[in-house]
Specification:
Helix content is 48%, strand content 23%. It is of the alpha+beta class. The protein is globular and about 40 Å long. Helix 1 packs antiparallel against helix 2 (17-33). The chain has a five-stranded antiparallel sheet with strand order 1-2-3-4-5.
């Protein structure tokens, strides 16, 4: 495991309970399905970089007391995603899912795939 992964692992280890479960679920998902993306701690949360410069984007995760948040700079898609969730929050670049809404976790997984697909399409046209 790389030094950066250890930073994310330390971050996860410092969490507990449901917060740790949710962050661990999504970090493991990203490591398994998108190991090509750079994993860093940015703004004190696990972040996966999608490109750089003007076309940069990212996917990041953060736990709160009562909900889990997915962050991205794909503001257009985040806006569409908010329509699929019960209480998505008001942030421009993030959505929130209550820990009790396990069925919405799959919606976040689908969102990750769509954000990555949209980024590749914008960057490479495929």
């Amino acid at each position: 495991m790389t030094k950066v992964s250890n930073e994310v692992d330390h971050y996860i280890a410092a969490l507990s309970g449901i917060e740790q479960d949710w962050v661990c679920f999504f970090v493991e998902y990203m490591r398994e399905k998108h190991s090509d993306l750079e994993e860093v701690i940015s703004f004190q949360m696990p972040t996966y970089k999608l490109g750089s410069g003007k076309l940069r984007n990212y996917i990041a995760f953060s736990p709160a007391k009562n909900h889990f948040s997915l962050h991205s700079m794909d503001f257009e898609y985040i806006g569409m995603l908010k329509e699929k969730l019960v209480k998505p929050g008001k942030g421009k670049g993030c959505v929130n899912v209550k820990y009790t809404s396990l069925e919405e976790r799959e919606i976040l997984v689908e969102a990750i795939e769509e954000i990555i697909k949209r980024k590749k399409l914008a960057s490479y046209g495929k």
